[in-house]
Amino acid sequence: MEDYFLNIVYKNKVVKFRVINPEAPLSQLMTNLRHAIGQDGKLIFDFPSVDQTGAPLDYFFGKEDPEIHEVRVLRPRIGRTDQTLADYDVHNGDTVQLIPDPFPG
């Protein structure tokens, strides 16, 4: 199997991120990304756990819809079903965004 990469955008920073298992659930990919360490030994992305108001933050992947130019949030689960990159038509080399999502405490 060839290497699988996503270009991940967060806070004006773009990182080419190697995905070990593109068929893994999105929740697992997000966990892997949260703990991913760059070549400098530091976390690739800084994921604040709360926003400016102190509300807890969750993070989702988002992908721009080329027809309407809106970012579609890739929900990690729909009902009881874990979603994968393929469920959202995300392919090797695509660009996705990280979207912070405050949830009510």
Low-confidence runs: none
Average predicted confidence as pLDDT: 90
Strand content: 35-45%
Count of individual beta strands: 7
Secondary-structure element series: EEHEEEEE
Count the DSSP helices: 1
Rg calculated over all Cα atoms: 14 Å
Major β-sheet profile = 5 strands, mixed
Q: What structural category arises from helix and sheet content?
A: mainly beta
Coarse shape = globular
Please give the share of residues in helix: under 10%
Order of strands across the main sheet: 2-1-7-3-4
Cα(first) to Cα(last) distance is: 42 Å
Structure overview:
The structure is a single chain. This protein is mostly beta strands and 105 residues long. The chain is 9% helix and 38% strand. The strands form two sheets. The chain has a five-stranded mixed β-sheet, with helices on one face. Strands 5-6 form a two-stranded antiparallel sheet. Strand 3 and strand 4 (70-74) form a beta hairpin. The chain is globular.
Quick rundown:
The chain has one helix at residues 26-34, and strands spanning 4-10, 13-19, 57-65, 70-74, 77-78, 81-82, 95-102.
